[in-house]
Amino acid sequence: MSHTVIAVHMTPRAGRDEISGWHEGELRVRLKAPPVDGAANEALCRFLAKQFGVAASAVEIVGGARARHKRVRIEGLTPDEARARLAN
């Protein structure tokens, strides 16, 4: 099965959940969730699953779980498919 890994720069405690575009090769994501007890990481996985149209279980943080700069693996999408879904 195909997958893609995306570099994400996450900003917790934002005013709203949103993707604010690409910057230096990272997808910038702003989330309302606080970075407490993994809440922001869980919110990130749910948010990205919705944005990419995949199940929440298909999204996993594979690097940077305790940092703002993360690597997120999305099962079932190629890198080209992932970029195309964000463009829509």
Describe this protein's structure.
- The chain is of the alpha+beta class.
- The chain is 26% helix and 36% strand.
- A 5-stranded mixed β-sheet has the order 2-3-1-5-4, covered by helices on one side.
- A hairpin with a 2-residue loop joins β2 and β3.
- The chain is globular and about 35 Å long.
- The chain starts with a strand and ends with a helix.
- The mean pLDDT is 94.
Cα distance spanning the termini: 23 Å
> Structural class, from secondary structure content?
alpha+beta
Could you tell me the strand content as a percent range? 35-45%
What is the overall pLDDT average? 94
Number of helices: 2
The largest sheet, given as strand count, sense and whether it forms a barrel, is:
5 strands, mixed
> pLDDT below 50 for ≥5 consecutive residues: which ranges?
none
Shape: globular
Descriptive keywords:
alpha+beta; five-stranded mixed beta sheet; 2 helices; 88 residues; 5 strands; globular
Offer a concise description of the structure:
The chain is an alpha+beta fold. The chain contains two helices and five strands. It has a five-stranded mixed sheet with strand order 2-3-1-5-4, covered by helices on one side.
